[in-house]
Write a structure and sequence with these properties.
Helix 2 packs parallel to helix 4 (about 60-70). The longest helix is centred in the C-terminal third of the chain and has 18 residues, at about 90-105. It contains six helices and no strands. The chain has one domain (about 20-105): DNA polymerase, domain 1, CATH 1.10.150. The radius of gyration is 17 Å and the shape is globular. It is mostly helical and about 110 residues long. The mean pLDDT is about 85. Keywords: Chaperone. InterPro entries: SDH, SDH_sf.
């Protein structure tokens, strides 16, 4: 009987909750950017967040979290390095373009 209860509760999907306070939400997103799990991804996300996070509103933060931060980190690294498709999601495209511009600026001094 316990295994049935466990299976039932493990299949439930709870909607994500986000802080009501916008500055707290931005701090949460920034923290997640700096703790992605792979140093290269953390470096890219932190640098991008430093440039863009302050101008984002609540809906954009939710979209960024859904598209980028909820992506598995190894898959995110492949997308950022151009080794995998990004399903034309706005923030994945934006981050990929940011990485390309950084690479181009470093190769063309």
């Amino acid at each position: 009987m316990n295994s049935r209860i466990f299976r039932f509760f493990s299949q439930l999907k709870f909607p994500p909750t986000y802080p009501e306070d916008l500055s707290a939400f931005k701090r949460m997103v920034y923290y997640r950017c700096t703790r992605a799990g792979i140093k290269e991804v953390e470096y890219i996300l932190k640098e991008w967040a430093d440039l863009n996070l302050e101008q984002m509103n609540r809906e954009q933060l939710i979209q960024f979290q859904d598209e980028v931060l909820n992506t598995e980190t190894p898959e995110l690294l492949k997308i950022l390095m151009g080794q995998s498709e990004h399903q034309d999601k706005f923030y994945l495209v934006n981050l990929r373009n940011y990485v390309e511009s950084k690479l181009n600026s470093q190769s063309n001094p």
